[in-house]
């Protein structure tokens, strides 16, 4: 009687296990889709960080009357833009020349490597159709860690490159390493700092999703049934 009682309870437990498995798979897939969308957004943000000439800009703080009048504008990794009487600023340089400003060459290279790593992780999303999810998540996680490390190193080296002719022409003679003079950091540099945080979060989430893939395997019904019979 106890044996048949255990057998009669087994289908109910198996159904509960299948229901739990289904909900777990749906939640994991939803988090995976969110992670993929955020990865694509991070790749777009990396392009903006590399191209926008708004890393540094002149501040609106008043200067002494005896001080020379400095031009207003912004500076990026590849070009310097000066404000004019027209709505369109006068920009010198550009990404089309593939030649960053001499003072920001190392920073531009690091941002470029970070950009490559993030876009490679985006392309690796196509591997879900050919490789196991664990492998794809781990590859993307290491690529995103590499991107975050390079971007963080670029943000640390950027203030050390402020003592340059381009920066002196825009920010005055008081500019130097880690001293902006008449300028201030603009939104692109802040976006780069936030990009480091995004890379860290997405890489951590990718490692978590990779470690959870083993739990997404369907339960072994034979082992469950045998365990119930032995308990009965």
Automatic annotation (TrEMBL):
Keyword Cell division (UniProt): no
Subcellular location as annotated: Membrane
Keywords: Membrane, Transmembrane, Transmembrane helix
Secretion signal, residue range per the UniProt entry: none
InterPro entries documented for this protein: LHFPL (IPR019372)
Any Pfam family: L_HMGIC_fpl
Membrane disposition: Multi-pass membrane protein
Keyword Transmembrane helix: yes
Name the UniProt record assigns to this protein: LHFPL tetraspan subfamily member 4b
Lineage of origin: Eukaryota, Metazoa, Chordata, Craniata, Vertebrata
Gene from which the chain derives: lhfpl4b
């Amino acid at each position: 009687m106890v044996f048949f009682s255990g057998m009669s309870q087994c289908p109910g437990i198996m159904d509960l296990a299948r229901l739990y498995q289904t909900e777990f798979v749906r939640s994991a897939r939803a988090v995976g889709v969110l992670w993929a969308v955020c990865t694509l957004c991070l790749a777009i943000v990396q392009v903006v960080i590399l191209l926008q000439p708004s890393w540094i800009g002149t501040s609106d703080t008043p200067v002494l009357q005896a001080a020379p009048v400095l031009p207003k504008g912004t500076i990026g990794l590849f070009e310097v833009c000066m404000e004019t009487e027209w709505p369109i600023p006068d920009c010198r340089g550009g990404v089309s020349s593939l030649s960053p400003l001499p003072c920001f060459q190392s920073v531009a290279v690091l941002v470029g490597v970070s950009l490559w790593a993030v876009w490679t992780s985006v392309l690796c999303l196509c591997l879900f159709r050919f490789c196991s999810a664990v492998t794809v998540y781990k590859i993307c996680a290491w690529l995103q860690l590499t991107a975050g490390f390079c971007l963080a190193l670029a943000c640390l080296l950027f203030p050390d490159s402020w003592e340059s002719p381009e920066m002196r022409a825009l920010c005055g003679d008081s500019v130097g390493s880690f001293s902006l003079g008449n300028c201030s950091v603009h939104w692109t540099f802040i976006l780069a700092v936030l990009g480091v945080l995004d890379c860290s979060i997405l890489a951590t989430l990718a490692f978590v999703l990779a470690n959870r893939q083993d739990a997404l395997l369907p339960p072994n019904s034979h082992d469950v049934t045998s365990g119930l019979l032995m308990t009965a």
